[in-house]
Amino acid sequence: MHYIGALDQGTTSTRFILFDRKGLPKASHQIEHTQIFVKPGWVEHDPTEIWANSVAVIVETLKKGNIEAHEVAGIGITNQRETIIAWEPATGRVRYNAIVWQDLRGAEQIEALRAQGVLEEIQERSGLVASAYFSASKISWLLANIEGLRSDAEQGRVVFGTIDAYLLWKFTGGTVVTDVTNASRYMLMNINTLEWDDWLLATFNIPKASLPQIVPSFGAPFGLTSVDNNLSTPIPIGGVLGDQQAALFGQACFSVGEGKNTFGTGCFLLVNTGERPRISSHGLLTTVAYQKAGEKAQYALEGSVAVAGSLVQWVRDNLKLVKSAPEVTTLAGTVQDNGGVYIVPAFSGLFAPYWRSDARGVIAGLTGYASDAHICRAALEATAFQVKDLCDAMASDGASQMELLKADGGLTNSHLLMAFQADLLGIPIVVPRVAETTALGAA
To answer: What's the pLDDT at 325?
Structure first.
């Protein structure tokens, strides 16, 4: 068995990569899925489309690499976090579209909890700054708005799970678990005990019977892919990590103080803080970095930005200034600076360190001098400015000053952005040979 596979189920696409014994990619395939924008602030995905794509990318990658399933030692899964699916394990029926992490429909509930004065308690227990970003308010919305769902959830006939849980259930034909890194993003898990917290469940009025079991990220097999998934031979699933934790792992940030930033759909800065959770006082999140079975969990401080690479896609698809994402950098490189144009891409509100779900996007500084090139440059620089905010918050929380920043994700292909980021932070930006370190970490 010569290869290890990584299924990377992201916000905009699903890919499968086969790595050889040296950790180098041998073959891969990627398929985008539909972004369903129901109304302003609402974002959904079709779980059946994601599942079909997950099987298709595995089959196509094996075909591209001329590799048989029996040559694959195992698969690691990494996934978009916080996105929630409600389904019936007994029948497979999906009760509603997946509500995506960017979705804001839970904001009213968070504001109601703010009025009750319980947000500090929520952060102390979950490690998370209370926000509609996390799964809890999405589950509450489903329970309140989908007919018959609460009754079924209370009787254990429905499971609310993140993408990893849904894929594991589909691949194995029945296992209902979520790994501890994904569980730490529900805003329902106690960050110290690593178990569902009764007070948090009561606060969001969510029955414990409707949640998957929390298990370590790796060290014990999750099960085998069943043969009815178009795979000639069952393949062991050996590990699961939320996408940002997988990138931290893939960047080998195993020591306290080591950190990385993923320049993907959003932007996510994580710094390893060791075996004890540290609660932030500057708008950062306390999250589980990873846990091996039989060992203590490792924690991280995280700064999350909602819109980074998706702003580049928006410039391409909505403004139609370019025909492909790489052209944004090309066009931006034709001007010396942003021409006074700045973009605040608060399409889903502002995440860390501000946590303002009511914020909306702004393009400022437009004059008759401004061109499509200046807007493209401002779109790239918007990501760098947001990362600077996260680094400043890390420093305010007492995190070790980073001597360099490990970077990964699709936007690292923009040398203009990487150079601007290095100038803004005053430290080197290190881009790995395998840019897709999220998949590498899962592998």
So the answer is: 87
Residue 443, amino acid:
A
Q: How many CA atoms lie within 13 A of 195 on its CB side?
A: 5
Domains of the chain, residue spans? 3-245
Among the listed residues 378, 440, 118, 384, the one whose alpha carbon sits nearest the alpha carbon of residue 248: 440
Which residue carries 């589950």 as its tokens? Answer: 139
Give this prediction's pTM: 0.87
Maximum C-alpha span of the chain: 63
The confidence score (pLDDT) of residue 358 equals: 86
C-alpha dihedral sign at 33, 285, 160, 36: negative
Looking at residue 53, what is its pLDDT? 95
Helix, coil or strand: residue 324: coil
Alpha-carbon distance of 212 to 358, in angstroms, equals: 31
Q: Which residues contact 401 (CB under 8 A, 6 or more apart)?
A: 395
* CA–CA gap between residue 42 and residue 49 (Å, rounded): 18
Q: Give dist(CA 184, CA 162) in Å, integer.
A: 11
Distance in angstroms (rounded) separating the CA atoms of residues 384 and 363: 16
In eight-state DSSP terms, residue 427 is S
- Contact (Cβ atoms closer than 8 angstroms) between residue 53 and residue 108: no
Q: How many whole angstroms separate alpha carbon 285 and alpha carbon 278?
A: 9
Phi and psi torsions of 297, nearest 5°: -70, 150
Query: What integer pLDDT is reported at residue 259 of this predicted model?
Result: 86
Segments in the chain below pLDDT 70: 227-232, 399-400
Paired tokens of 30? 């990627």
Angle at 125 between CA 264 and CA 269, to 5 degrees: 20
Classify residue 329 as exposed, middle or buried by CB count within 10 Å of its CB (0-12, 13-18, 19+). Answer: buried
Looking at residue 257, what is its pLDDT? 83
Share of the chain above pLDDT 90, in %: 77
Four-way CATH pick for 3-245: 3.90.930.50, 3.30.420.40, 3.50.50.60, 3.40.470.10? 3.30.420.40
The sign of the CA dihedral 54, 57, 60, 62 is negative
Could you read off the pLDDT of 324-367 as tens digits, one per residue?
Answer: 988 999 999 999 999 999 999 998 789 889 988 889 999 999 99
